[in-house]
Design a protein that fits this description.
Oligomer: single chain
Radius of gyration: 26 Å
Structural class: alpha+beta
Largest sheet: 4 strands, mixed
């Protein structure tokens, strides 16, 4: 026997069991992730509030000059901005697939990034592949996704991976680690400012935890803690550069209603919560309280300060921050992913574990079914408008009008009202699809603070934070006398109404009204097409003799 030859380590039965369990867990993740993404298979355009506007911008970026009517309305202006996730990723995808498909793939990647980032952070913190992080799928369909904040959510998923990487490389030497994560932090800043802030707060709090728990608050430990901040310098520098193209800096904390909405935002997939949303929130809060009381949910010691810091930041976050609306829902929808990744669920009784698993499966199943069915119905409505929009002349300027939806018309035909209802906000940016189909001008495209600008001829009727005009506003602004009075009206960031002189500045009107009520007769409007919830009019201007 050769004494220098190493003795092979026997492969124990426990190793086989562990490998088999990991394969089964990965298979379960694949199945659940596929179910989470499945609603995207039923629609061409996911009915997320801001998404049609983002998709229209992606279309402009993909067709910079070959469509003359489009080039007459919009110009491309790439610049350093802390909000480029979709512009960078989906634009690259659109080179190998149609733009609408690239948009759906980007939304799918956003969902997978949130789930995969949670799993990765949990694996780094706890050292094993566990079932518990799969519960993150329960929180993918949240209020931020409903509003179409896809740039923010995609970057949040990348933040989970970046923070996992920072923890996993704690054995590295300081200089290579700082240099590497300076690049990572800069990438996060370009994807979205919120993710960069999340990453910075998480790293600072995590490093502080190690020093507090280890009772190493010496001068040298504090110095090394501050040195870790050096990785944020390139990102902060780029953010300062981006301020040259910044928009509004308005900051408002928000009223009680906004804060209550932020509280339920991780569980609510809409603006007006359904009975299912409220039941979902109640079930999760009860399960969380019981798990904490029974000590079944154990928080990783290294994450105590980090989680506490994120909760405090969520409470203090204004509703509108530097012009960004609903800033206060972004941290609450992130917290479930961080908390799941930071904890271990250890239920001693098998029966209770089975009951919790059954409850989670039921909540998940109802959510996916409701989203799939409601999205199919929205897709039919969107397709109806897109078909009718053929009457709009290429390159025309399109005015948007939306009447309130009556309560008796809020019912969807494919799903009970307790699970989903018609959300009026889903139609705010519907008209942006005419940018894709007819190269039309949409008055409140996300321009100026993004990678596109409106052309000079359209600047007077461009409103960065616009919404559809109401029927009353349309009627009043048809009167030249009222138009003069509207010159003094402005929104929170000082923009005047884009529709204030519509008979002279717009070519077509999209009028959405689910009530089916007769429209008031306006001599400036000539009906061209009609659908189940809208009419399209041509704006008729008097002949000049």
């Amino acid at each position: 026997m050769n004494p220098s030859r190493p003795i092979a380590k026997p492969f124990l039965p426990t190793d086989i069991d562990t490998a088999r369990q990991n394969v089964l867990r990965l298979a379960l993740y694949v199945i659940v992730c596929a179910a989470t993404l499945s609603p995207l298979l039923w629609v061409r355009v996911p009915p997320l509030v801001d998404y049609p506007n983002h998709l229209a911008r992606l279309w402009i970026l993909a067709h910079p000059s070959e469509i003359p009517e489009l080039a007459a309305n919009y110009t491309i202006h790439w610049r350093i901005l802390p909000d480029l996730a979709m512009d960078l990723v989906a634009s690259a995808l659109s080179r190998i697939m149609p733009v609408e498909q690239a948009g759906r793939v980007f939304v799918a990647l956003t969902m997978l990034a949130l789930i995969g980032g949670t799993l990765t952070l949990h694996r780094v913190l706890h050292g094993r592949l566990a079932i518990w992080p799969i519960c993150s799928v329960l929180f993918v369909y949240n209020a931020a996704l409903f509003w179409g904040f896809v740039n923010c959510l995609f970057a949040t998923g990348v933040y989970l991976f970046a923070f996992s990487g920072w923890i996993a490389t704690r054995h590295w030497r300081m200089v290579p680690r700082i240099l590497t994560f300076s690049v990572v932090g800069t990438l996060l800043l370009l994807l979205h400012l919120f993710a960069f802030g999340l990453y910075g707060l998480s790293v600072v709090a995590y490093e502080l935890t190690g020093r507090i728990c280890g009772r190493r608050l010496s001068v040298s430990s504090c110095t090394s803690w501050i040195v870790t901040w050096l990785q944020f310098i390139p990102g902060v520098a780029l953010w300062c550069i981006s301020l040259r193209d910044a928009g509004s800096t308005l900051t408002l904390y928000g009223d009680l209603g906004a804060k209550l909405y932020a509280l339920i935002s991780p569980f609510d997939f809409g603006y007006q919560p359904t009975a299912f949303d409220l039941l979902f929130a109640l079930a999760i809060w009860c399960a969380l309280i019981l798990a904490v009381i029974s000590r079944s949910l154990r928080l990783a010691p290294d994450m105590r300060v980090t989680v506490a810091a994120l909760i405090v930041a969520a409470v203090l976050m204004p509703n509108r921050m530097s012009g960004s609306w609903s800033a206060d829902i972004r941290l609450p929808v992130t917290l479930p992913f961080v908390i799941i990744a930071s904890t271990r669920l250890e239920v001693s009784r098998k029966g209770i574990a089975s009951l919790l698993a059954a409850g989670a499966v039921m909540l998940f199943g109802f959510r996916i079914w409701a989203v799939s069915q409601s999205w199919r119905e929205y897709d039919d409505l969107f397709a109806e408008f897109r078909s009718a929009s053929a009457v709009i002349s290429p390159g025309a300027r399109l005015l948007i009008v939306e009447a309130p939806i009556p309560e008796d018309r809020r019912q969807l035909t494919r799903v009970p009202s307790m699970l989903a209802i018609v959300q009026p906000a889903a139609f705010i940016h519907l008209g942006a699809l005419a940018v894709i189909d007819r190269a039309a001008f949409f008055p409140y495209m996300f321009a100026g603070w993004t990678t596109i600008d409106v052309t000079q001829r359209n600047k007077v009727i461009s409103q960065r934070e616009g919404v559809p005009a109401t029927p009353d506003e349309l009627i009043k602004s048809a009167d030249p006398g009222q138009t003069k009075a509207l010159q003094a009206v402005s929104n929170l960031i000082g923009e005047r109404p884009y529709w204030r002189n519509w008979p002279e500045t717009f070519d077509f009107v999209l009028w959405m009204d689910f009530s089916g009520a007769p429209k008031p007769e306006l001599k400036q409007l000539r009906p061209l097409a009609k659908g189940s919830f809208f009419e399209i009019y041509r704006v008729v201007r008097p002949q000049v003799r």
